[in-house]
Amino acid sequence: MASSLILNVLQGNFDSVLSLPDEGMVSMFKTLESSGLCGFLGFSTAIYENDLVNFFENAFVRKNDVINSVQVQNRERVEELKSELSQKITKLELAFAQSTSQQDMVFRAQINDVRREVQIQKAALKQELTASRFETQEGFSTLRAQLSEIIAYINRGRDDKKGKGSNSGPQPEDRSRPVGGGGCGSRSEPSKRGSSSYKGRVTTSSGFSRWFS
Fold this sequence. Notes:
This protein has 213 residues and is mainly α.
């Protein structure tokens, strides 16, 4: 009952305000009416004073809907944070992709360097093996030639010894000379020396026999 009376009184006062001759006041109250705040005029300001102050500070009416500006600001802030977070995530993804590509390039360069070094070492080893093979073949050829010379030298020495042995053999006996008579037979030189020494011994013994007789 009391609230209806207050509503009637305030509504009447509000309608009377709109009929004032002051255009500025009328325009202000019409703007207030268009904002949808007429519903608050039916209640006592002493009861809802804090709510009205909070409303005027942090709310507004849009299409007959009361919107809290604090919530809107929080939502806008959340959207900004989401946008910033998505941008940071995008930057991180780009940085990670760039670092991954750089690491791939570094790894590929290192692998190519290792392959190149392996190829160089392989070529050098192949060249060394070829050179050592040639040296081994040359060594075998030289050794074979030296062995051939040694074998030929041994064969020549053996042939020379055979030739000297055949030349120093016993001479054939000369049958044209007489066998006996005056010691000029066909005996060898050692037999002659033996006979001469025997004759010497005979003459010496005959001399001693003559001395003692």
